[in-house]
Amino acid sequence: MTCIAAxxxxxxxxxxxxGPAGSGKTTLCDQMLAQFGSLKRIITATTRKPRPGERHGxxxxxxxxxxxxxxxxxxxxxxxxxxxGRHYGTLKSEVQAQLNAGNDILLNIDVQGAxxxxxxxxxxxxxxxxxxxxxxxxxxxxxxxxxxxxxxxDSEAEIERRLQTALQExxxxxxxxxxxxTSTRERDFELMRSIYLAEKHRVxxxx
Length: 207
Hints:
Elements: E1 4-5, E2 14-18, H1 25-35, E3 39-41, E4 44-46, E5 60-62, H2 65-73, E6 77-83, E7 86-91, H3 92-100, E8 104-108, H4 111-121, H5 125-128, E9 131-137, H6 141-151, H7 156-170, E10 178-181, H8 185-200, E11 205-206
Helix pairs in contact: 1-8, 6-7
């Protein structure tokens, strides 16, 4: 059977960045979005109340508990979770709108959310050849502990709770498409940049 190679660079890539608290994924996402205008952030839906200056449809989609539940029942999310008593989710309509516009997407979500996306990709043609998940793996649990303490924003009890979650997340590392061993911010950014550019030039062979 003859295969046809798609033209490059390709558009409509979904990069999902995962990693334990303190791994630097938020900083890395901000660096990537600042560097590449082709990368877009998805607006998340949530049931938490808006903070001063936040606007519906710009910073978040602010839903009531009832609205969020209706969206879950309607299958409107690629992934959703309850965090600290508030729901958060990634709307299919937001992802699809960006992909159909030919934009690339960068998401910073937890490993459960990434797993949900991978499951959808097994039967969703829009996601199937576009989705790549990247796990930021710190050198050790001690490195995570030090970084969390350096933040000076969490109690020791909260740090230990986050470390237990980190151990569970680290066990999923090999289920991702890429493992990015964290080092310096500069090195992490160069690795992430290389992954993105490689995916932009990946040849997609159509039957």
